Amino acid sequence: MLGKGVVGGGGGTKAPKPSFVSYVRPEEIHTNEKEVTEKEVTLHLLPGEQLLCEASTVLKYVQEDSCQHGVYGRLVCTDFKIAFLGDDESALDNDETQFKNKVIGENDITLHCVDQIYGVFDEKKKTLFGQLKKYPEKLIIHCKDLRVFQFCLRYTKEEEVKRIVSGIIHHTQAPKLLKRLFLFSYATAAQNNTVTDPKNHTVMFDTLKDWCWELERTKGNMKYKAVSVNEGYKVCERLPAYFVVPTPLPEENVQRFQGHGIPIWCWSCHNGSALLKMSALPKEQDDGILQIQKSFLDGIYKTIHRPPYEVVKTEDLSSNFLSLQEIQTAYSKFKQLFLIDNSTEFWDTDIKWFSLLESSSWLDIIRRCLKKAIEITECMEAQNMNVLLLEENASDLCCLISSLVQLMMDPHCRTRIGFQSLIQKEWVMGGHCFLDRCNHLRQNDKEEVPVFLLFLDCVWQLVHQHPPAFEFTETYLTVLSDSLYIPIFSTFFFNSPHQKDTNMHQRQLSLPLTQSKSSPKRGFFREETDHLIKNLLGKRISKLINSSDELQDNFREFYDSWHSKSTDYHGLLLPHIEGPEIKVWAQRYLRWIPEAQILGGGQVATMSKLLEMMEEVQSLQEKIDERHHSQQAPQAEGPCLLRNSARLSSLFPFALLQRHSSKPVLPTSGWKALGDEDDLAKREDEFVDLGDV
Amino acid sequence: MWWGGRGQSFNIAPQKEEPEMGSVQENRMPEPRSRQPSSCLASRCLPGEQILAWAPGVRKGLEPELSGTLICTNFRVTFQPCGWQWNQTLVHGYTVLYLLTSVSGLSRVQLLRPGSLHKFIPEEILIHGRDFRLLRVGFEAGGLEPQAFQVTMAIVQARAQSNQAQQYSGITLSKAGQGSGSRKPPIPLMETAEDWETERKKQAARGWRVSTVNERFDVATSLPRYFWVPNRILDSEVRRAYGHFHQGRGPRLSWHHPGGSDLLRCGGFYTASDPNKEDIRAVELMLQAGHSDVVLVDTMDELPSLADVQLAHLRLRALCLPDSSVAEDKWLSALEGTRWLDYVRACLRKASDISVLVTSRVRSVILQERGDRDLNGLLSSLVQLLSAPEARTLFGFQSLVQREWVAAGHPFLTRLGGTGASEEAPVFLLFLDCVWQLLQQFPADFEFSEFFLLALHDSVRVPDTLTFLRNTPWERGKQSGQLNSYTQVYTPGYSQPPAGNSFNLQLSVWDWDLRYSNAQILQFQNPGYDPEHCPDSWLPRPQPSFMVPGPPSSVWLFSRGALTPLNQLCPWRDSPSLLAVSSRWLPRPAISSESLADQEWGLPSHWGACPLPPGLLLPGYLGPQIRLWRRCYLRGRPEVQMGLSALTVSGLQDELSHLQELLRKWTPRISPEDHSKKRDPHTILNPTEIAGILKGRAEGDLG
């Protein structure tokens, strides 16, 4: 089935385009269609990619309705991915090849996407790592995007097994040097392809101008200034080259504690209040140093407490909020719900789905993040206070909370470009340690905390609750979450802008953020939906949180009163955080589970209807235009993405190939007996006939 | 305005009514409500309804708040906003007394029970409906006026002695003032032989005929007067065969699959009877229905019992109360603890399996439940919804409910708690939830919308039509005066139909205009419905091998998700003893577990290559896919119910029709004035903007 991956990559004849486009347009596919069917399945390598080891006659289990049948093929490990090249290409279907990832085929796993590797020895499943004494007969790979692969090595030559298993384990599990990232070989090999996309207006925040522009946009330039004190990372390697601080703050203060203890501007609200962040000063035992720190901080606070600055409220995210440890534990429990080796296991856990989900407390963590963001929003919006987020390095929960606040308060961030700029500003320039948090180098498992994923999940809740307020869809978020593990983009592979700049010499493949194909542009309706969708709400009768705390009351009042009004999608946007309202991001987490597929159903069904109608609207508009101008306008080609496939499945656009003929899930013992009967031939006719109807 | 849904949280409420409500508030001052004479209210009652107490108050929980009158009658509690016409209130303001579960005065929240302390000042009253609705009324002057106390007490007392509603005969056509009796019911009520014949022809069930054997309800009162039996079976045989089934509910056709299969339903075998050979033969012929392949489905297996359903529903209701004490982070396990979703899932799973059985090959599939009045109806309706695109239209669905539930004798009154009997179990509501799940999963396959389901959900306790207020077709027919020869039987109550009122046609729940405004009825349509891949592609295939003479060549029992071969269809043949029942379930030599493990999961391999038959929906029933029907169950809670993308679709549809109209207007003449028209504010989308965005996207994707 890798054939499709090959097709996506252009059959090995074309170099892939530098920007990350997940799903190619049908035309491209059709040109290559013939070649592929005639050709033998070949491994397609990206520029700079090298084949490391391979094994033939590997049986890949096809997880289709838990049928334990498989496909023979070659298992290959390169310095970029693990790939399975299957022989069985007969099932290729035009419709399904329309939406393929250009870089990652269906049977490709980038090395960074590998989460856990298990070996099966005599029916026993064991985690594989380090040097192996015995080689497994079956290899199970859990991916970070929650795919599960099972390869049977029983029919493979012994030395090939040795080579491939130890190769895979070494290249995915062993600690790596930064310089060894595939990113660099790719960048070197593909550098001439660098094209700056003129359409991509994402603000990168790597120049002083970008920050000034942002200050101007949010009208923060009255009280805050962009500084270049850290140009060339002279002061601090954790901070970006340029950033924004309160105007009266002396620049030498920045140098004092290498940027610690400095209030850094994130965003300004229309009423003048601002969101600031600060990394805490290093913890010291020495009283003398503590004294110095205290007086330094007093000075800082004096600056920002004085008018024209609003009252400052400090939110210490390191102490009174989530710990990274909690997030890590919750996610590792949560993801187990979706990493399914076999159906039986799945059905066993399915009965207790809700309590398992709850015990992972991942949803509760999402709720707490959203709640914190609402609280801060309340301070800024209703009480006109400045909020200062405090965290040890100001690069984990700070990024998350401040991005969420901006998403809720600033409609610009809900456009695609605005959202990408936000990620660039708060996460990439904010120094979120993507390298450590994603554990790309496998150097320290403890550092691996899915903070960014948590952020995307929080955003998904917002998108899910208020789809018309966003220009992008959940598919965009899902694709974005996948690109965390594709090492041809530099965005998510560094710990700080400094690390990136010192390692990447040219600006290269900067942002992988590209609108996914199936996104229906709900943002379209933003101007007009207000009369379509009204947020119709009464007052609350009971309080969700029975706390007499004043803060809670303020929060509650703010939350209730916002929800009792109709929603302005161009204004403040708050999520619902009640128990039933926080949901599982089904598209991301369930997309590889064939049992979760609803053929011809799901959101896609509405979506295709929507697109169809949009096309019709467009063609009518064109007709009207024509009539008006009484001249033939050039026929614009409408997007025909969902055209010919009337019954897509709910997993679209992801696991399309899993199950194009849906089987009933009858765990029957009876069918075998049925097959024994002598009217087999007759029945076969019936089946076929039914299919033809 | 649906008051029950906290008004606006139902999107079904037409937006147009809003200004009206605003004006109501403004007019409040010049027109003091408290003088509203109760005699005036009385004239607006249903026949036989008496006003017990009333008090002016303000309906809370809405923006803006509505002022009006809280009225308690012997049938219902209703809040009537002032300034509204009676008709509207009749339509929108329904509740029934036995809906109440708790009543409280707010300043010190108190749960009111008939015996509880009577000294209090009711500032506010909260009424929780059994259908998850919530009515919250604040009394004027802080509840100091005596009327407030009176109405509260009246409600509390009436709640204690509710069960009168069942006596209510429903609105008849003449009483409703809807004109002469020439009006046809909106859907066939399946009360005449013609209805059955028409439906049979529609399904192209050629091997079947309408039997009139139960015309006088002497075979079974719970059966409809007409039903379908195989062509070759005589009525006398039917009568004899039915005697061997529980409550006389023998096998009859539910639905004929266009591919040739038949879906039958029947009650349990009446084991105490000792049928002779002839009878057994008749029973077997009826079950076999001319097919060589017969699958008997044990409906009760793997599905919840009635008591389970009731318990789950009670728990769900408790959980969904607005002041339920469940913490947010425990919500999910509490939801799981109700087991309601589990039951929904079990129903869907079983229905999905059965529809595969019906579709995969030509056979007779028999749903067998002991009573044949609850789960059989649920499964048979679900199977039809899954396999027949016609059943997914508004008309089709209503006919389906009328046929498989109302006419088939689902004991609505008992199951919904109308008789106070212990057999209360909201099986029908469980069914509606299942349908809602399907609607969620296949948003383009149903012609009706969630609002329709909600309207149906709310209608089951509304005492204006008899559809859901009787247990059997016999009782229903008796009351509606169709069976004049049987009305000698004494029926309590005032509603004895006067003689010669055969024109006095009974209205049914399907007369939606009785209760809902046109704008609301329009919302019953699903804007995302895409009939293209539905009924047209559904070509009934002639089945040459329909009638196979001779005994069935294979008989299976479908149980626990698996098919097991059966020795015989009926329990009596070889061993006429009572023990036969248990021995019947013993399968032929069991397949060893080892071979089971080795066996391929699922169907024979040739099925795999065969695409899904068009029109067949296979629902998902994984934990994450079964969702809570928030718009229904969480109505009492303040969370917003958003229409999500469905509203976008309806917006686009408006846009489309607008454009089409525009284009039509322009077709005859093109003049420069039209330019300004095109840019009028109605135009939702700016054409250049669309083109730009679409083009941009296309390029971006190519990029």
UniProtKB/TrEMBL annotation, chain A:
Origin: domain of life: Eukaryota
Pfam families linked: 3-PAP, Myotub-related
Alphabetical list of CDD domains matching this protein: PTP-MTMR12
Cellular component, GO annotation: sarcomere; sarcoplasmic reticulum
Domain Myotubularin phosphatase: 205-589
KW Glycoprotein (keyword) present: no
Keywords linked to the UniProt accession: Cytoplasm, Sarcoplasmic reticulum
Location relative to the cell: Cytoplasm, Myofibril, Sarcomere; Sarcoplasmic reticulum
InterPro entries: MTMR12-like_C, MTMR12_PTP, Myotubularin, Myotubularin-like_Pase_dom, PH-like_dom_sf, Prot-tyrosine_phosphatase-like
PANTHER family attached to this UniProt entry: MYOTUBULARIN-RELATED, MYOTUBULARIN-RELATED PROTEIN 12
Quaternary data: Heterodimer with lipid phosphatase MTM1. Heterodimer with lipid phosphatase MTMR2.
Functional summary from the UniProt entry: Acts as an adapter for the myotubularin-related phosphatases. Regulates phosphatase MTM1 protein stability and possibly its intracellular location. By stabilizing MTM1 protein levels, required for skeletal muscle maintenance but not for myogenesis.
Family to which this protein belongs: Belongs to the protein-tyrosine phosphatase family. Non-receptor class myotubularin subfamily.
Protein known as: Myotubularin-related protein 12
Source species: Gorilla gorilla gorilla (Western lowland gorilla)
Gene: MTMR12
From TrEMBL, chain B:
UniProt-listed InterPro entries: MTMR12-like_C, Myotubularin, Myotubularin-like_Pase_dom, Prot-tyrosine_phosphatase-like
Region Disordered, residue ranges: 1-39
One Pfam family here: Myotub-related
Domain Myotubularin phosphatase positions: 190-633
PANTHER family: MYOTUBULARIN-RELATED, MYOTUBULARIN-RELATED PROTEIN 11
Family: Belongs to the protein-tyrosine phosphatase family. Non-receptor class myotubularin subfamily.
Name assigned to this protein: Myotubularin related protein 11
Organism field: Gorilla gorilla gorilla (Western lowland gorilla)
Gene: MTMR11
